[in-house]
Amino acid sequence: MTENYYQALGVERSATADEIKKSYRKLARKYHPDVSKEADAEAKMQAINVAYDTLSNAEKRTEYDQMLDNPHGFGQGGFGQNGFNQNAYSDFAGANGFRGADGQSYYYDFNGNADGGAEQFSGFEDIFGRFGAGFGGGRRQQTNFQGEDQHAKIEVPLEVAYTGSTQQISLQIQGFNAQGQPEIQRKTLNVKIPKGMKEDQQIRLSGQGQAGVNGGKNGDLYIEITYQEDQRQYVEGADVYSTVDIAPWEAVLGEKVEVNTPAGRVQIGIPKDARNGQKLRLKDKGIPNAQGAGHLYLILNIVTPKANTDTQREAYQAFAEAFKDFQPRA
Length: 330
Description:
The protein contains 8 helices and 15 strands. Mean pLDDT is 77; it is low at 75-140. It has helices spanning 5-9, 17-31, 41-55, 58-69, 124-128, 160-163, 248-253, 310-322, and strands at 91-94, 97-99, 105-108, 114-115, 150-156, 165-176, 182-193, 202-205, 221-227, 233-236, 239-246, 256-261, 264-269, 279-282, 296-302. 23% of the residues lie in helices and 27% in strands. A hairpin with a 2-residue loop joins strand 10 and strand 11. The chain is elongated, with a radius of gyration of 30 Å. The protein is of the alpha+beta class. This is DnaJ domain-containing protein. Residues 4-68 form the J domain. Keywords: Chaperone, Cytoplasm, DNA-binding. One of its GO terms (cellular component) is cytoplasm.
């Protein structure tokens, strides 16, 4: 049984847009040809790209769901296989014909020809033609089709938000070959990322989307930016949160220390008796933008050193004696 788009992404048909997006990102990390060791990584990546391109677009997803519910109304090739569009030839005129997108009724004679009244066609292939040759084949006027806009997402280091950068990226874009058949095309682009970009903002690359058909204009490519995150560093809007390790005595005594941050190396004053998990706000040290920079929040993480020598263990013993009234589990 041929795998459908939902199965390709490993989600249920009732999946939300966020669930589809999350599953796609997980599979993309697993099967991207640049990092995957799977033997069929490229084929898998192509399949999930095509599936995500359809299911992430509300209009395309609706058409695809209609195809799943009524596959015979979309022709033998299925959705997206031969370039057929439901809106072009969906009104069938009966068992021996159909109604075209131009409102004209076409009927087959017993020789397999279709009769549109004034114009004769040499068969089924003449009516639909190759997508790249325009509907109706060479005997009808070819129609130009503008290529669809494409969307991609790239993940970059957080430092790029502060400095800007030019990143070289490789993308797999759904397009059409010379015969008008859909195929996955790989392209490498240099993308200039300006400083101050927030997550989910997009960079528009004019004419870098899906190629037009029969001389039609190319679509645009929209690149969505996300920043690399982990348990110690993450972004919320224009605000940045970063964990800073400090020693117990630095937390208690309130010393000044220098730390590395996404905004560069800075000196901070730790308040006396600082608590583990306490946040220090550095105003306007978040992601810069035209409306004003966000803030940088340093999350204090008190790290207890190991006692590897007798002297260090004696120091801990003296510490215990000095704080013998302290009850951490009280």
